[in-house]
Amino acid sequence: MGDPERLFVLTGAGVSAESGLGTFRDRGGIWARFDPMKLATPEAYAADPDEVLDFYDHRRRGVVAAAPNAAHVALARAEARLADRGGRLFLCTQNVDDLHERAGSRAVVHMHGELLKARCTACDAVTPWRNDLNRASSCPACGAAGRMRPDVVWFGEMPMHRDAIEAALAEADLFVAVGTSGAVYPAAGYVRQARRRGIPTCEINLEPSDNADAFDDARYGPASAALPRYLADLGL
Ligand code: OAD
Prior knowledge:
alpha/beta; Rossmann fold; SIR2/SIRT2 'Small Domain'; 2 domains; three-stranded antiparallel sheet; 10 helices; globular; binds 2'-O-acetyl adenosine-5-diphosphoribose
């Protein structure tokens, strides 16, 4: 394989696991402890907004307290090195934390939204938000009270930035997935789109994911070690 110029990287909760943020489907993961249908759907928010907001308040505090790990840092460094040689690293994350940004990644596409932003359901304005949200929280843009929700994608809602993601997939010359179980679509389908285009694909994960058969290369181990090693092998 020649040096990649257009690298598409998909990250999932496994990339932030070593920063202390929980994954979803591992033993003891977030969805093993909490019912996503009661906490991560528009219906759950309509039925019991306090419970939903509490759940995301707790996770937001975890994100604010966490720090990027070597996997985040390696991706930021690879983005800069690839840009220096005229290439591009497109970083598509399913994560709602900001650890890629804090490690120095510049262009991060959050397909499942961002926990450190809140959206007003009255006027749709999106505002940076680091504190707890409650039903007294008011929108800085329109002033409506009690209409702020985390700017994350819930089950039954459309992922964000799909056009930009499709465009990047269509021009990528290498597809890499890191720390994702391959259980949630459309992200889980991107490797097959890449394969249909005939580009190399690699998964970096603690263990084979649900999608392992769809990749033509794999590196298994903690992302903080396996990802820097893999990117170094690419000269990044
Ligand atoms: P999952 O929890 O489904 O998968 C995390 C993957 O990371 C698993 O395959 C683990 O084996 C792997 N893993 C755990 N620790 C790791 C480590 N230190 N290094 C490398 N890999 C590790 O998380 P996602 O695939 O991100 O969506 O889940 C996708 C979506 O499902 C999330 O964005 C979230 C969730 O429901 C919404 O909330 C909309």
